[in-house]
Design brief:
Blueprint (H helix, E strand, L loop, with lengths): L3 H130 L14 H20 L12 H4 L17 H6 L6 E7 L5 H14 L3 E8 L7 E5 L5 H16 L4 E5 L10 E3 L11 E5 L8
Parallel strand pairs: 1-2, 1-6, 3-4
Antiparallel strand pairs: 2-5, 3-6
Helix pairs in contact: 1-2
Length: about 325
């Protein structure tokens, strides 16, 4: 019995240690599972946080890029606005010069009217004095130089002259009325009907295409573009065309006069455009014919002109750029 006692104690101890080790192993497994779970949760949350940070960064970059694009667009609009303001200032200066010229012509017309009135009054007094001096008026006595109807007619002519001076451009002003020397001529002058001026070759060559619509685009930074555009519009209107003019701002790098035709237009439109290019070349312009490189309804920059009709309605566009005239 004594020899078996220690052996039983060792087995109990081993069993105790075995149970302790089992509990320790279970605890370590539980701790390991908890650690793995915590690691998985931490990794998952880390991935989600990283995705959220990247999404926030991309949104911030997109907003920043949008702000840059908007700033560039505002800068382009500011440049176009400055060009438009410069164009308006030039037009205002030209209008002031024209108003001053018209005012001078109106003043001259008023002075001529005063001279006419004075001459008419003197002529009437001389006629009255001659009639009182010779009571039996002979048959060969000449009628008074200016009667009331003649004076009213001349004042009506002067009023028409003043109205024409205030409505017509300076280059198309009528000739000044005859001075008092011509008015005091005893023989009444017969007003001859002026003959119609001969048509220019440019107008005559485009008469066959009357009714064609054309949009004239004038580059805003070209100083002589308004004058060239006015001349082209007047000549085309005289030829029976239907031109409309717009000022094109924010565009540069176009040389000469470029005649553009909308894609898919009728052969008659292309024929009219070719005739226009030939006529412009014969008239001293650097004219070429081309095609619109993009959609006909889209264009860069800004257009300043009439709202109706639209600048995209006409099938022919006449772009006036730099060095439009030959030798300029």
């Amino acid at each position: 019995m004594r020899s078996n006692q220690p052996v039983n104690m060792d087995i109990d101890q081993l069993r105790g240690w075995a149970s302790i080790m089992d509990k320790a192993m279970i605890a370590s497994l539980v701790a390991t599972l908890l650690a793995v779970t915590a690691l998985g949760i931490t990794t998952f949350l880390s991935f989600r946080y990283g995705n959220a940070v990247r999404s926030h960064e991309q949104a911030a970059l997109a907003r920043y890029k949008g702000m840059e694009d908007e700033a560039a667009q505002r800068e382009r609009e500011a440049v176009a606005a400055r060009e438009r303001v410069a164009t308006l200032e030039r037009e205002i200066a030209a209008t002031r010069d024209r108003a001053a010229m018209i005012e001078q012509q109106v003043t001259a017309a008023r002075e001529q009217a005063a001279e006419f009135e004075k001459a008419a009054r003197e002529a009437t007094e001389r006629a009255t004095q001659a009639a009182t001096e010779s009571k039996p008026a002979p048959e060969n006595v000449r009628a008074p130089l200016f009667d009331a109807a003649e004076i009213r007619r001349r004042f009506a002519d002067l009023g028409k002259l003043v109205r024409d001076a205030t409505t017509r451009p300076p280059e198309s002003m009528p000739a000044p009325a005859p001075g008092p020397e011509a008015a005091s001529d005893p023989a009444p002058a017969v007003a001859a009907t002026p003959a119609a001026p001969p048509q220019s070759p440019f107008v005559a060559s485009l008469r066959n295409y009357a009714g064609t619509q054309a949009a004239i685009f004038l580059l805003g930074q070209i100083s002589d573009a308004p004058a060239i555009g006015a001349t082209l519009s007047a000549d085309l209107s005289q030829a029976g065309w239907l031109p409309q003019t717009w000022t094109w701002g924010g565009v540069a790098g176009i040389f000469g006069v470029v005649v553009l035709v909308r894609d898919g237009s009728d052969p008659g439109v292309h024929e009219a455009a070719s005739a226009l290019v030939e006529s412009l070349g014969a008239a001293g312009f650097n004219a070429t014919k081309g095609d619109w490189p993009a959609n006909w309804g889209r264009f860069r920059g800004t257009l300043n002109g009439p709202q109706t009709p639209s600048p995209t309605d006409a099938a022919i566009r006449i772009v006036v750029g730099e060095k439009a005239r030959k030798g300029s």
